[in-house]
Amino acid sequence: MGSSDQAVFEPKGESKSRISGLVRQLAWGALKLLYPPHCYLCNAPIAAEAGYICSTCYAGLPRPKPDEPECARCGGPLTAGADADLCLDCANRPWFFNEARSFGFYEAGLAELVKGLKYGGERALARELARYLLEAGEGLLARAEALTFVPLTEAKLHQRGFNQAELLARELSKLAKLPVVPALAKVRETADQTALKPQERLENVHGAFAPVGRARCERILLVDDVYTTGATAEECSRALREGGYEEVYVLTVARTRWKEASDGAQSQTQARA
To answer: What is the rounded distance in angstroms from the CA atom of residue 249 to the CA atom of residue 236?
Structure first.
């Protein structure tokens, strides 16, 4: 038999898939040997299974104290010894969302992680932050039937290249075993919220979001990166209610911390939300 007549082994089907998987594992192992994982925040070496930050940095993330009272609606800290279960903002006005919760405060290491994802283009951080959402949103996720996210306009999406809220929602979907529904569209650009006062923020985003199609379920959870005054969450929730969703919950990685304004009313520190 001539060399041209010799049979050539070509793995097919399941065998080919196993070989490809083995090659990927070997390549990934070699990569880890050449570039061992380090903590995103302090650059200390960490195990690949540990995620993206070390245990010390995780323990130091700014979070509410376990015994710290929080608003039953928005999840913000309440003044020590407060009799009511709602903060002044939630007590003085109705909200379209039923409840909002956040993992921690938008400062120090947690702010660096959010900024790394949102502005630094570190998309892999969405996986790390989704684990925080799962931890903080256990109660909300148990009630929700689907997830959605705060959308960007087409122009903004093209400029940034991705929507950090959608990345978070899709990573959380894998952990929570809930479907992601693109239930909202942003129909107009809005001004940067950073320097705006709370009422100006509400006016800035009013009418900026619209429902997409009919409601796919009754209870939906809205995912975003940062909760500042609640203006974006409120406007998105209004649009979701218009779309037919009966209950809307909000879950964010971080929120800005309450502070006492000079006139005695509660306000929030500014953040690039």
So the answer is: 11
Assign 143 a pLDDT band (cuts: 50, 70, 90).
very high
How many CB atoms within 10 Å of residue 137?
A: 26
| Residue 122 clears pLDDT 70, i.e. is over it | yes
Other C-beta atoms closer than 10 Å to the C-beta of 152 total 19
Domain annotation for the chain: domains and CATH numbers: 21-60 (no CATH), 67-268 (3.40.50)
**pLDDT category, 29, cuts 50, 70, 90?**
low
**139, 197 in Cβ contact below 8 A?**
no
Rounded distance between C-alpha atoms, residue 131 and residue 146, angstroms: 17
Average the pLDDT over 24-42 and give the result.
Answer: 66
Phi/psi at 139 (5° precision):
-65, -40
| Nearest alpha carbon to residue 126 among 157, 176, 163, 100 | 163
| Residue 59, both tokens | 């323990």
Show the 3-state SS of the chain.
CCHHHCCCCCCCHHHHHHHHHHHHHHHHHHHHHHCCCECCCCCCECCHHHCCCCHHHHHCCCCCCCCCCECCCCCCECCCCCCCCCCHHHHCCCCCCCEEEEEEECCHHHHHHHHHHHCCCCCCHHHHHHHHHHHHCHHHHHHCCEEEECCCCHHHHHHHCCCHHHHHHHHHHHHHCCCECCCEEECCCCCCCCCCCHHHHHHHHCCCEEECCCCCCCEEEEEEEEECCCHHHHHHHHHHHHCCCCEEEEEEEEECCEEECCCCCEEECCCCC
Output the CA angle 141-248-116, nearest 5 degrees.
Answer: 65
Cα first-last separation, the chain: 72
Does pTM surpass 0.90? no
